[in-house]
Amino acid sequence: MTTSTLDQLGRTLGVLRLSLTARCNLACRYCRPENQDPRTLLTHQQRLKLVGVAARLGCRRLRLTGGEPLLAPDLVPLIQAVKALDLVEEVVLTSNGVLLDRPLARRLQQAGLDRITISLDGADPQAVLRMGGGHSFARVVAAVGHARAVGLPVKINMVVMAHGNGDQVVPMARLCRELGVELRLIEYMDVGNRNGWQPQQVLTAAAMIAQIARRWPLQPVGRQPGATARRWRYGDGGGFVSTIASISEPFCGDCNRLRVTADGVAYTCLFASQGTDLKPALDPRQPDAVLMQQLVSLWRQRRDRYSEERTSRQVNPTPRPSPAEMAYIGG
Ligand code: SAM
Ligand code: SF4
In terms of pLDDT, which residue wins out, 324 or 279? Predict the structure, then answer.
């Protein structure tokens, strides 16, 4: 039975973003991965319990993220077990793709993964190196091919920093058109305190789309309720491109995402300073009703709308008291 619950701003719970580790095998310029004691991680049973209860509260999609979720040894069995529960409509993954070879792509697809988003910040090896992606360009492009070859729908995430990879917007649009995948251009966000975010480093979605539209005509498609991405269709039939404009066009009004860190702390906003420890309620000796009650009460109290407040200048973006880092909270 599904229990629908609304937060203080009338928003439903629709997506659970579960981080599997705060660790990463890359060090992107805009993100700060962390070392994490493996003993603090939620167990397989705890993750399943969380997904089951969140689904009963209305979560229709589970997004597995990190840190780098392909570093989690039990990723494939987790996807298999979640699919066997048959409680969520979609299980999707966000990864940097470095470890995604053909056999792993096949195992993920066979386990029931519905689709994958792969991050890539430049259209050539040097651009990726500049953004902290190391020498991963060829591997990540190959990973896109592996995912598609086994039948996994793919999107590519690119975080754009004006003075980092701002020159890569059109080259990435070209590469993604050639690869036949949708590019999602993400405005550089002030998540956490350690990436040195500055407003001058933000290239707005409108500026990015204007660059692309000068080269290939675009038709606006819009943003689905609850979605992060606003989409455009290439006029020449070359597919879609989208933007995630958390800075210039915040979408707090219908945000339906609950984030849970790899060690079981729930955040009701990506920009939150404080989380709620779910570990005691996730203890297998506790009945599901305890976790259900805690999540219902957390969601009913939720009034976060940080991006909107920042944009209307009610909040100074940096520094804030101990906000969680992106790789910890799960982007
Ligand atoms: N390691 C995986 C990856 O990079 O795809 C998954 C975790 S990562 C934190 C999830 C997404 O958040 C990635 O697409 C990443 O590019 C994005 N991201 C990280 N830091 C960001 C920031 N400061 N602003 C905007 N997006 C960011
Ligand atoms: Fe790692 Fe993803 Fe953060 Fe890059 S964005 S450092 S790949 S967790």
Answer: 279
Q: State in Å: Cα 260 to ligand 1 middle.
A: 15
pTM: 0.95
Q: Identify which ligand lies nearest to the alpha carbon of 132.
A: 2
Average pLDDT over the chain, rounded to an integer:
94
Is 191's C-beta closer than 6 angstroms to any atom of ligand 1?
yes
The pLDDT tens digits of the residues spanning 22-60 come to 999 999 999 978 788 999 999 999 999 999 999 999 999
Helix (H, G, I), strand (E, B) or coil at 297: helix
**What phi-psi label fits residue 102: left (phi over 0), alpha (psi between -120 and 50 degrees) or beta?**
alpha
Query: Would you list the domain boundaries of the chain?
Result: 15-329
Q: Return the CATH fold of 15-329.
A: TIM Barrel (3.20.20)
Residue closest by Cα to atom 3 of ligand 2: 31
Nearest to 75 by CA among 21, 14, 140: 21
Task: For residue range 218-240, list pLDDT tens digits in order.
Answer: 999 999 999 999 999 999 999 99
Beta strands in 111-260 (DSSP E): 115-119, 154-160, 182-187, 218-222, 230-234, 240-244, 257-260
What contacts 24+ positions apart, CB below 8 Å, involve 221-229?
223/251, 225/254, 226/12, 226/14, 226/15, 226/254, 226/255, 226/256, 227/251, 229/184
